[in-house]
Amino acid sequence: MAKRYDVIVIGGGHNGLVNAAYLARAGKKVLVLERRYVLGGAAVTEEIIPGFKFSVFSYVVSLLRPEIIRDLDLPRHGLEILPLDGTMTPMPNGDHLWRVNDHSKTRRELERHSKLDAEAYEEFGKSMVAMCRFVKPILAMIPPDPTSLDPRDLKKLAFLGKRFQTLAAEDKYNLVQLMTMSAADFLDQWFETDVLKATMSASGIIGTFLGIRSPGTAYVLLHHYMGEIDGAFRSWGFSRGGTGAISNAIGDAAREAGVEIRTEAAVTRILTKNGAAHGVVLESGEEIHADIVSSSVDPNLTFLKFIESRELPGDFLEEVRRFKYRGSSGKVNLALDALPDFTCLPGPGRHLRGAISISPSMEYMERAYDQAKYGEFSRRPYIDMVIPTLTDPSVAPPGKHILSCFVQYAPYKLSHGTWDEQREAFGNTVIDTISEHAPDLKKIIIGKQVITPLDIERQTGLTEGNIFQGELSLEQLFFLRPVAGWARYRTPIRKLYMCGAATHPGGGIMGASGHLAALEILKDTGKGKTDRGGHSRNRDYWRRPQRAGRRVLPREKGPETTAARTPPNCRRRGRHRGISSWLPLLHRCSRRWPAAPFNPQRHAPKPFRPRTFGISHTLVSPIARWPRTHAVHGSRLLRATN
Ligand SMILES: Cc1cc2nc3c(=O)[nH]c(=O)nc-3n(C[C@H](O)[C@H](O)[C@H](O)COP(=O)(O)OP(=O)(O)OC[C@H]3O[C@@H](n4cnc5c(N)ncnc54)[C@H](O)[C@@H]3O)c2cc1C
User: Fold this and answer.
1) What is the CB-side half-sphere exposure of residue 403 using CA atoms within 13 A?
2) Are residues 558 and 499 in the same domain?
3) How high is the pLDDT of residue 231?
4) Residue segments in the chain with a per-residue pLDDT below the cut of 70
């Protein structure tokens, strides 16, 4: 008889694996189906050139949730994160900007460019940390539905409102600005050094088809600011063995928890019956059945390729079709015979151990976008480079190096020709651009891999090559990701869930989508208790029952036995919830209660009082920034007069 599973997870990317691991740890029988021969999706290490192990797509890590690292005990499964040391930006005039993890060194470097910016940088850092503290719990939260009157949603919204209130006034304004402004405009308010603003604004455009002057990019900047490694806020790192090592560590933890993983098993269809999913069909024609299907691939594949459109509500389908991908990134991985020599800081040194950013000016960044807008790849692109071999020599033969170059913009849709025709030219453009700053580069290249957005789509299944399974623009975030009303990992098809980066909190090697989706699946199947902060209140609940020394409860055998736990004298059979589940009913009843009698004093019109300071004022008026600007410029004045 064919094997039956509790859950089938489509896709063995890191989110699919996290999802599977948590479900298996709660006692589910889980099967992961991965299309490729290797696990990891966009977080994968492959030996493309003999001896050189490229982090083919994603190359640095920071956002991976600490609770996932802890819960799955990833260091025991081989995860090791090595710190990335700052960012160096070569400038066309032969100078450079080099920010390192050492605070006082960075300050001295910034002072070399602008004393004002050195001061503002500290203040900026503090403010960003405050905003990250506000936003971070949201990453670990199942998005509330703002249109719902469910007390659990209202509680979450109240929690967010309360947190917002705890922010200092200045941070409140900053947060609203971050949510609405462009990265360039936001940074213009803080700094005057062009190269500093250009390099910092680059975080705002990664993975989006937007320029640094497009509204909404300031939030993406914050998204990339939120990382932490081993408790060190805002730091980025390499995973030893490449980003594939992260996926492999999660895969090992999943296997240990009992997950079965099949590679080279491409799903072509999701089986449904009476509006509920009950299995999948593989490319080979094999049918596999399960109580639940959890899809870690994007909405385009899940709903438009794997399911007949008649199975889905028309308005939902419309929203899925409207979901924006618009891939804009490419990658060039180079195998090098030696280290590149940058004219701005010649010779080997610490400056090569961090990121090297080709983002010399704001104008350069915006022009790079201009070409992409009209369907061409940037002739002088923004490039974010790392040399992982300086931190982790295990990924290349002794004495050799890897230069990993993330490139933007490479629009998925070209106005002329195809990506197969343009691949070589794109690779050459990237190499030429780097050579302007490191003239010896071409001589030391011994192999290269050029990845266009079309290649990203072909290899990972990421639609239009969008690195985040869908743009991280404001209208596609939080309770709107991937579709308004369906942001809580459930779908209009019962027993079909989403668990990939297309769901909240979005892309990057974070694992949060897989984790939160697992919590929701367990909630629906009678397991798991809370999503607050992404943690279970009773941590032992998540361990496999036998290992936690816990008796296997009858309800863990399946959802159908849930009723067995309801007290026999309880009139409401099925799921046994607390008083909070009655509150929506009370609310509905309250609408029928008679209105309070008219009270002339309470209902008298209030006298008009103009608002002296409001959010709209803050949004439009630079005066809102006055106290800080004044302080900074004040100090310049002081020094000038001294
Ligand atoms: C070029 C590039 C650079 C990036 N750089 C970084 C970075 O430096 N740092 C960072 O944090 N993030 C980075 N990212 C983003 C990050 O890698 C992704 O957001 C993240 O890996 C998405 O994980 P996921 O598990 O949700 O989805 P995916 O990784 O897309 O996994 C989906 C999986 O499903 C599989 N699949 C597809 N179709 C099928 C099918 N029909 N049947 C079965 N399986 C299927 C795929 O093969 C894949 O393994 C980068 C991404 C790219 C593409």
Assistant:
1) 30
2) no
3) 61
4) 1, 228-234, 527-642
The gap between the terminal CA atoms of the chain, to the nearest Å, is: 88
Output the six-digit token pair for 51.
């001896």
Give this prediction's pTM.
Answer: 0.84
Decide: residue 502, CB within 10 A, 0-12 exposed, 13-18 middle, 19+ buried.
buried
Q: Based on the fold, state whether residues 570 and 510 are members of the same structural domain.
A: no
pLDDT for res 554:
35
Q: What order do you get walking across the sheet with 329-336 strand by strand?
A: 96-99, 87-90, 355-358, 382-386, 401-408, 329-336, 445-451
Ligand 1 atom with least separation from CA of 513: 26
Q: Is 509 in the pocket of ligand 1 (CB under 6 A)?
A: yes
Q: Which of 423, 415, 418, 421 is nearest to 452 (CA)?
A: 423
Residue nearest atom 31 in ligand 1 by C-alpha distance: 13
Report pLDDT for 633.
Answer: 36
Last residue of a domain, one of 477, 506, 524: 524
Q: Is there a single domain that holds both residue 574 and residue 502? A: no
Q: Is 560 exposed, middle or buried (0-12, 13-18, 19+ CB in 10 A)?
A: exposed
Q: How many whole angstroms separate alpha carbon 599 and alpha carbon 581?
A: 34
- Judgement on whether residues 318 and 248 belong to the same structural domain of the protein: yes
> What is the total count of domains within the chain?
2
Containing structural domain, residue 560: 553-588
Cα distance between residue 483 and residue 464, in whole Å: 18
Sign of CA dihedral 257, 263, 269, 273: negative
Number of neighbours of residue 305 by Cβ within 10 angstroms? 16
* Residue 556 · residue 545 · CB < 8 Å: yes
**pLDDT over 70 percentage in the chain:** 81
Atom index in ligand 1 nearest the CA of residue 500 equals 26
- Ligand 1 close to Cβ of residue 16 (< 6 A): yes
Q: State in Å: Cα 636 to ligand 1 middle.
A: 48
Query: Tokens in use for 10?
Result: 């489509």
